[in-house]
Amino acid sequence: MDNLNLNSDETIIKKTQIVIITGVRHEAVLTSRRLILIENETGRIHEDISFSEIDQAIPGVNKLREPIITLVVNSPGGEKRTIELIFIHFIGDKNIVELEKCLSILKEHNVLIGGISLATIRALLTKVDRKNKGTLLDEEQVSRPAVPEWIVFGSLNTKKQSLEEEPPELKPLHTLAIIFLIFVVMIAGISIVGQTMQEKTQTDPYNMTASTVKSGVTISPSPVPTPTPARQVTPVPTESPPRIIIPPVGVWVRVQYPGNFSGYMGARGRNIDVSGSGIQWYQLPVVDPTLDGIIAKLDGSSDKMVVETYKDGTLISRKSTKSPYGSIDLHGAGSEDLTNDVETNVVPITPVPIPENLAIEDYLPKITIPTTGVWVRVYYPGSFSGSIGGRGISTPIKSTGDQLYEIPANVGMVEGTIEKDDKSGGKLVTEVYKDGALISRMETMKPLGLIDVHVPV
What we know:
By secondary structure, the protein is mostly beta strands. Among the domains are: 12-125, Roll (PH-domain like), CATH 2.30.29; 246-337; 360-456, Lipoxygenase-1, CATH 2.60.60. Helices cover 13% and strands 40% of the residues. The chain contains 4 helices and 23 strands. It has helices at residues 94-108, 118-125, 172-203, 360-363, and strands spanning 12-21, 24-31, 34-39, 45-50, 54-61, 67-74, 80-87, 112-113, 152-153, 212-214, 217-219, 251-267, 270-284, 292-297, 305-311, 314-321, 327-329, 374-390, 393-407, 413-420, 428-434, 437-444, 450-456. The strands form 4 sheets. An 8-stranded mixed β-sheet has the order 4-3-2-1-7-6-5-8. The two termini are 22 Å apart. 24% of the residues are buried.
């Protein structure tokens, strides 16, 4: 990497993961004064832009469903040019977290932020791998999780259209078999129709002759009385509300909204994208109805969107929202969520302060740290989530209480982010150990607080 030529009062605030610019991999470095884009292969500085030259930063989504930031930059000659930064996919939602951090730094340096909201981007793109692994493998490969087959009932009204598949080429034998089958069906149809017509002719009394001769005796048929036409009475249909047929077996999710919605849902780290309008049914191939996902309204309407979860024909959860562009979080759906109408408005939680004079050693439970290897300890009484790893390989984590994660010893640098999932004032503590010795400790008491881990080992 070329010398960045930092000024004496200039510091590096953030180094991003790999981003794509016009098809080339780059690393974005944000300092206290400027944005520097460096080519990964050559280490050459591709762009050196002062924050004052950036007119606007616009977050969005490209055609490949990847989060992007479009920078509008003022050139020295007065013209405006654009630079598109593509944040490629990593395990979990690390690319979206990187995008949010970059936007936050640009906003702090008076760069105008436009485009769609970050909540909408998360609702459309987040595919969280919920595999709560406590150990990272040295040769772990980053890959997208396999997605099971999902059964969808209802008419879809979605903006996404699948590509048309070319019909398979028919072999000559297949063509002859199809022609022969059509011929057999035609012969059978003609035979059935002829037999039906013959039976009708034999049993129709109106086709009889005026007289029948048998044994020389002429028999005149008695006149057939003229039938009196019956009066037709058309019944008046009675209106009844539409009946909802609940599947009797399995775990099902029902989404009802008159407008368009989009998001994802799944269980145990196996998620799919969902979108549509009206009433849609989705079957989950799991036994435990503990779900994960988010469903968001794609318009500013105040109409109610309802998401219900059923297990073996029984309603176990119902959530709804009337907020414009509102979203429903499916995480932790269970019997405690079952009410007539649960709105997903956020209720503020009063922070519970921790005494400042309480020593950290007294706050943390006593545990035994392994005497060999690199380990990361995370402790928080509530729920926390994030990712941890090294050498560009990270594993998403989501847990509570006291957890210990092993890191490969040759990573050189332990990197990741750990954040609180609630607004309590409890203390979140992250420690890094090497061969049983504590080399780093970080903590935060802020509601929804976040700890950024960058520790050499």
